[in-house]
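Example record for the data management plan.
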Amino acid sequence: MSEWIVPSSFLVALANRLFASGRKVLTVHYPLYGHELFSIDNSFHVTSPTTFEKFRDARDAATSYEPDVKREAPDWGDVVDCFASSGAIPPPNLTELATWAADALEDQRSPQKAARPLFLAVDTNIAHYRLFSRHFPLQAPNGQPITATTFQFLISETVRREIDGQIQRKYRGELNRLFTKPGQEPFVREIGGRNVLVARKGKLAQNEIDYLDKQLMALSVSSPDYSGDKEKRDITIAQTYGTFAQERNVEVALLTMDQNMVDHAKNAKIRCFPLQVIARPDLKSVDLHYSLAHLLHDLAVVLGVLVIEPFKTTVWGEWPGKTSADYAAEWVKVVLDDKAPIAKYLELDFEVCAKMLGVSIEA
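Corresponding structural encoding:
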């Protein structure tokens, strides 16, 4: 077997090489459920996606019924969340956000309006959604791009603690009770000692926090002691941003995907823009031209592993020895049988990509 630990962007090269083998369609499977998630045609569009009902039935058939371990079986919502966080499925009111952002920027530039400095404040769900690193730039009504770097950002310490609290535990045998079929054993052995499901999703959200810190220079806002109650945390987040706005005499706009936060923001006397969520989106014909690598990476991390046909090409989001640096840089492990006709060509592709990006890959 050939193995490479590579940046997730290399997955585009992998897809192109698989198509170059003569295939017009690639299929993406979740091997722990023995279930096909969707196909990708050679124009990089989703075809033949599974459905909520089919995925639910596959999940039930592939897992045990022990309630205390069932939570570690990814559900349909986890798959949909990956399509959203990758940028493949934008929020339905993203155009409204672009208009709102353009108007806010115009106010900032207009001396007649004497607008106060504007800060965009981040809710925890926005970090999970990867709004700024995956869905920007926005397109203003005049056709001009609105980049994330145009704005100033705030992150409440409560948001940081909430995400940090999710990244706290690794498996202690749960998967051996959840997945009991012989065909599942090789996959369970590879990911069995790694991060639990909520921690893996927390790792993805942490990458967005890192992006806000390092690329967008977000300011941290101190907050009261952390509460274990979600509604109290939400109120604390809004009040923290409200206090910052009053003390600094600035304008703060909270971005959230939680409709209750709209009222919390009103009570904190700050602006709020709620992004909408599609609970059961139609995945057919979703365009993956700009989001394929992100989608495969996020699915591999959240599900633990993917298999792409042809040639049983395996993409691991979890593997023994994966480091915090691998998580932060969004690297994956690709495994391919040496006898596959594309093996030597894929190695050359990866070497070329590595030289272009100036990185060293592990093989």
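Summary line stored alongside the record: The longest strand covers residues 35-41.
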